[in-house]
Design goal:
The two termini are 17 Å apart. The chain is an alpha+beta fold. Helix 13 runs parallel beside helix 25. A hairpin with a 2-residue loop joins strand 8 and strand 9. It is elongated and about 105 Å long. Strands 13, 14, 15, 16, 17, 18, 19, 20, 21, 22, 23 and 24 form a twelve-stranded mixed beta sheet that branches. It has a six-stranded mixed beta barrel with strand order 4-5-10-7-9-8. Helix content is 51%, strand content 17%.
Length: 836
């Protein structure tokens, strides 16, 4: 309960008299006096100031932290020259397949005929082994066409970037083949920031590259890919002419004045000409263009905007709480205000003074909120970095601080204006009389305070329902059968350099697997080119041998995986029909394949697929020797796709094994065999790094990073809102009890029982709670429509969630009401009546 504070309303520090106005005191001096008085007033009420500042700090700090992430992902300019003119260009293949990579031949036609582009550049992301240093390291590399760096307009920190003259670009041959540009982090981490490295060779995948430049630390292309090196793309003559090989990502810079839609129209016209010229390879293919930032951010924007809206509701609840505190404080300052009015202070002067106090509170709350935001970002950034593009290195920059000041100023005005107007309407004669001195807040003010509490409860319910739905959806997603048995499974990536690719299977991978399989604690060990659940694809068309060929462009599509024996046993994938591969089969004369259940049911419903044949190329068909259970390749929220498994001993598949994944099932804790696995790999080839060593459970957890981030943030906001709304309800009921102390004493004196007094107070709180929950349910129905795209396996209007959250909020509200009700029932009637 708030206590009356002792004030001196007629001092020079807090009152501007008519004589002062006549002397023309500057407005800046008036503001200084208001601020000084506000600070003194708050210092005399430390409890009130602490609670108000803490409420505001929670609301402003949460808003600042989330805005910092949104600023980094959606607003901060990309580190390139005129990034608004950059676009991503894609090939498309029917509405079902979405955006895809571009063949090199098509890219060349786009560049030559695309007159609305200033430049077009293509790139490929891959991983390389950095060798010749203290320890082999797997690094991320970008192989790009010569136009990339001129297109982006970024100068190197040291040296130069590779490029090509007009002739080289036209022929897709860079003059700097065999040269490489390093990222600033790699240059410092592995080479000590040595400037003399320029012109010296480094070894990547066994090949020598000459270092010609170092890019600045802020440069990141592709965004959030954290590339370590950039080198010229050197496609083979065959690759340059093949339109069926789609592997290139394409970025373009629009000419000044050209719109994204204009460039899209032109690319689709070019795609139409290519389809007519090359029907065998281009039927059904078109193009699409997106602004570069939109292409990078992808589907993260809706989730971020939902979180910004949620954290805005938290700030509204905090402001409502502080407004309630200020109204209660204004009630005990009525005599001070009346004295000031009686001495000649104008109403506008009083309103300004109260608003200055509110703004001072808001600014102090903003300072503490900035500290909370900084701490929150330290916790949030590692989670956001794995779940959101461009979220690495989230800064508290000028735009964020501007947002912080704006939010704090608007908050101060929002929660301060009504108490200021209310205080300035005091009746001087009535307030200064003995009766007025004992009077309490009017019915209008009390109704407004109650309305604020109703608003807090309603907004809290909206956030709690949203968090509850995300939690239920996350639990459903986590419990979704993946098709795997993940317990006790260790995964580790190993990369094979191009120079060793031809002999990779017999000389590297087979001996490596044999050594790993014989390690203590290892039950089985297999190998695959792509792990499930990782939203990664390698797909292609196939046909069923003996059936009529489907129309051009309508061939069935399947995911391709190159695997070693024991992979299915290691991942817990059941073999439903047939058998697994063996180590000695898979030569060109015996072309074998294993299919998953999804493909078997699609192509051979009600039949045994074992023994049937599929044609994957123009050579001999592949015979199906087994059918295995389907797994969710694209993530737990995606249904299994048709899938083909090819043996790693099959001729012609060497290129798929550039980066393979060891999958090891153990009878012991997976982490305990990590060192032994590293030793087994090094015993075969010390130059091969082992990287991304994770348990399969960690791989799945990583795939849920975005959903987990959304859940944690909305859950935290909902918890803060629940605490604030409960505190607001407690404060209002406590104030009502304090106002009615004499009434309670009289009731008890004439025989009212404890339960009667508690019931009287509880009914007041129950009315506020019921109205707030009712309005909150209506708001939640609207809010959850926005959340629908973020949910999995649960309806946006799930009655169990709505009912459970309403019950939880009702229980918290009843506890917040019961505490002051119990205090009211313990009033000593003699003391209460004597005090009055």
């Amino acid at each position: 309960m708030l206590r009356p504070e002792r004030t001196s309303p007629a001092t020079a520090d807090n009152l501007q008299t008519p004589e002062d106005e006549a002397r023309g005191v500057p407005w800046l001096d008036d503001l200084r006096r208001d601020v000084v008085f506000a600070l003194r007033s708050l210092r005399r009420s430390p409890g009130f100031a602490a609670v108000a500042v803490l409420c505001l700090a929670l609301g402003i700090g949460a808003n600042t932290a989330i805005f910092s992430v949104i600023n980094a992902v959606l607003l901060r300019p990309l580190p390139y020259v005129e990034p608004d003119r950059l676009v991503r260009a894609y090939e498309t293949f029917g509405p079902a397949h979405g955006h895809g990579s571009v063949s090199f031949a098509n890219f060349r036609d786009w560049r030559e005929q695309g007159t609305r582009f200033e430049r077009l550049a293509g790139w490929v992301e891959l991983s390389l082994n950095l060798q010749g240093t203290a320890e082999p390291e797997r690094i991320k590399a970008v192989m790009a066409t010569p136009d990339l760096f001129p297109l982006l307009g970024v100068r190197p920190l040291l040296g130069r970037a590779f490029s090509g003259g007009a002739a080289e670009v036209a022929n897709d041959v860079a003059k700097d083949k065999g040269q490489v540009v390093l990222s600033e982090p790699l240059w410092r981490r592995r080479f000590g920031g040595d400037p003399s490295l320029l012109g010296r060779p480094i070894r990547l995948d066994g090949d020598l590259y000459t270092v010609v430049g170092v890019m600045p630390a802020a440069f990141d292309f592709p965004p959030s890919a954290a590339a370590d090196v950039w080198a010229p793309l050197d496609p083979s003559p065959k690759t340059q002419k093949t339109r069926g090989s789609h592997f290139l990502a394409v970025v373009g810079r629009l000419k000044p004045g050209v719109s994204v839609d204009g460039s899209l129209t032109q690319l689709r016209q070019i795609a139409g000409r290519l389809e007519r010229a090359y029907p065998d390879q281009q039927t059904g293919r078109s193009a699409d263009v997106l602004p570069f930032r939109e292409a990078v951010v992808g589907r993260s924007r809706p989730a971020l905007l939902v979180l910004l809206g949620a954290v805005g509701l938290v700030l509204l609840i905090a402001c409502a709480n502080v407004a309630n505190l200020l109204l209660a404080r204004a009630a005990v300052r009525r005599r001070e205000v009346a004295v000031r009015l009686a001495l000649g202070a104008g109403r506008a002067r009083l309103i300004r003074q109260f608003l200055v106090e509110s703004l001072v509170l808001a600014l102090v709350g903003a300072l503490l909120g900035a500290l909370l935001a900084r701490w929150g970002l330290a916790v949030l950034e590692p989670l956001a970095k794995g779940a959101l593009p461009l979220a690495g290195g989230v800064p508290l920059d000028g735009r964020v601080f501007g947002f912080l000041l704006l939010v704090s100023a608007l908050s101060g005005l929002l929660f301060g204006i009504v108490p200021a107007l209310q205080a300035s309407r005091e009746d001087v004669r009535d307030t200064l009389s003995d009766a007025g001195a004992k009077a309490t807040a009017g019915g209008g003010q009390q109704r407004f305070r109650s309305a604020l509490v109703v608003l807090e409860i309603a907004l809290s319910l909206v956030l709690l329902v949203g968090a509850g739905l995300l939690l239920r959806g996350f639990l459903r997603l986590s419990e979704t059968p993946s098709g795997l048995v993940t317990q006790g499974v260790l995964t580790a990536h190993v990369a094979v350099p191009d120079a060793k690719m031809k002999a990779a299977t017999p000389q590297l991978l087979q001996p490596m697997l044999e050594k790993v399989r014989h390690l203590p604690g290892v039950r089985s060990a297999g190998l695959t080119t792509l792990l499930p659940i990782q939203n990664a694809w390698t797909n292609g068309n196939y046909t069923v041998e003996g059936r009529p060929a489907p129309p051009q462009g309508q061939e069935p599509l399947a995911e391709f995986r190159v695997v070693a024996p024991q992979l299915f046993a290691s991942l817990g994938i059941p073999i439903l029909h047939g058998r697994d591969f063996t180590e000695n089969e898979g030569a060109k004369s015996a072309r074998l394949v294993i299919v998953n259940d999804a493909l078997a049911r699609q192509q051979f419903p009600g039949e045994n697929a074992v023994g049937r044949q599929l044609r994957l190329d123009e050579e001999a068909p592949f015979t199906i020797v087994g059918v295995v259970g389907s797994v969710r390749q694209a993530g737990l929220d995606q249904e299994p796709l048709p899938e083909l498994y090819l043996p790693y001993t099959q001729d012609g598949l060497d290129g798929f094994l550039r980066e393979a994944v060891l999958v090891i099932r153990t009878d012991v804790a997976p982490a305990s065999v990590t060192s032994a696995v590293r030793g087994a790999v090094r015993s075969v080839d010390p130059s091969l790094p082992l990287f991304k060593v994770q348990t399969m459970d960690e791989v799945i957890a990583e795939s849920l990073a975005k959903q987990r981030l959304n859940l944690w943030l909305l859950g935290i906001f909902a918890a803060i809102a629940l605490v604030l709304s409960a505190a607001g309800l407690y404060g209002v009921i406590s104030y009502l009890v304090a106002q009615r102390t004499r009434e309670m004493g009289v009731r008890i004196a004439i025989g009212a029982q404890t339960r009667d007094v508690i019931g009287l107070v509880m009914r007041q709180g129950a009315v506020l709670m019921a109205v707030g929950i009712g309005l909150g349910l209506l708001g939640a129905f609207a809010f959850t429509r926005v959340l629908a795209n973020l949910l999995y396996g649960v309806s946006a209007r799930d009655p169990l969630t709505f009912g459970g959250i309403a019950a939880l909020l009702a229980a918290v509200a009843l506890v917040a009401t019961w505490l002051p009700a119990r205090r009211a029932a313990r009033v000593d009637p003699v003391v209460a009546i004597r005090t009055e």
